[in-house]
Amino acid sequence: MRFLQGFGKKTRNAKLEHCIDCNKELTGHKYKPSPGWKMNGLLCSDCHIERTKEFILKAEEEKKQELAQREKEESTCQLCNSLINSVKDRKKPEWKWNMDSVTILCPQCYEKTEAEFTRKLNFCAICGTKMGFIRYNPKQRWRIDGQLCRRCWDEQNLKSKKADG
Ligand SMILES: [Zn+2]
Ligand SMILES: [Zn+2]
Ligand SMILES: [Zn+2]
Predict the structure, then answer these.
(1) Is residue 9 assigned to a domain?
(2) Does the pLDDT at position 89 exceed 60?
(3) Ligand 3 centroid vs 160 CA: distance in angstroms?
(4) Binning pLDDT at 50, 70 and 90, where does residue 15 land?
(5) Which ligand is nearest to the CA of 151?
(6) Do 100 and 138 belong to one domain?
(7) Nearest to 117 by CA among 137, 98, 141
(8) What are phi and psi of 83, to 5 degrees?
(9) Residue 152 falls inside a structural domain
(10) DSSP assignment of 37-72, as one string?
């Protein structure tokens, strides 16, 4: 009796609906695809299970790729692009070096950058003399990276004055 009632209800508003995947007529349970699947229509139970599995696998695959990508970024020196295998060799540049976009350096590049920074900080950019407490900033248009000793600054100043005429 119960079964008949249920059956009657179903046939009354029977629109012929078909699974959008296998095209089977949907007589039993029908399933709405998840919004993330970007599908329109209804699915039979088998296809719904298949799609669910497929979607989970795809999501896992994407996550794996994302992790691999991040892992690669975190293990690649951003100056020389070499792969840094050991985690303890992944060096972070010091903030005072002013390397905004660089987050990971290999030990060699770290040392090189540090030495370069120390050189700029302590030695004249032209003659390489160790500078004392007093050092001179080159004028911008001289395009010199670093600081200068007194003698080199004067020379450079004279030169650029001559060049200006
Ligand atoms: Zn189906
Ligand atoms: Zn490097
Ligand atoms: Zn100098």
Answers:
(1) no
(2) yes
(3) 16
(4) low
(5) 3
(6) no
(7) 98
(8) -85, 130
(9) yes
(10) G---SBB-HHHHHHHHHHHHHHHHHHHHHHHHHHHH
Residue written as token pair 């497929």: 54
Ligand number with the minimum distance to the CA of 128: 3
pTM more than 0.70 = no
Q: Is 105 exposed, middle or buried (0-12, 13-18, 19+ CB in 10 A)?
A: buried
Residue 6 lies in a domain: no
62 shares a domain with 41:
yes
Q: Are 85 and 34 within one domain? A: no
Ligand positioned closest to the Cα atom of 124: 3
Residue 8 lies in a domain: no
What is the per-residue pLDDT across 33-77, written as a single tens digit (0 to 9) for each? 999 888 999 999 999 999 999 999 999 999 999 999 998 888 999
Query: Is it the case that residue 5 has pLDDT exceeding 80?
Result: no
57 token code pair? 């696998």
Find the domain containing 96 and state its range: 75-122
Please identify every residue whose CB atom is under 5 Å from ligand 1, which is an ion: 19, 21-22, 24, 44, 47
In total, how many domains does the chain have? 3
- 63 CA → ligand 2 middle, Å: 28
Q: Supply the Cα-derived Rg of the chain in whole angstroms.
A: 35
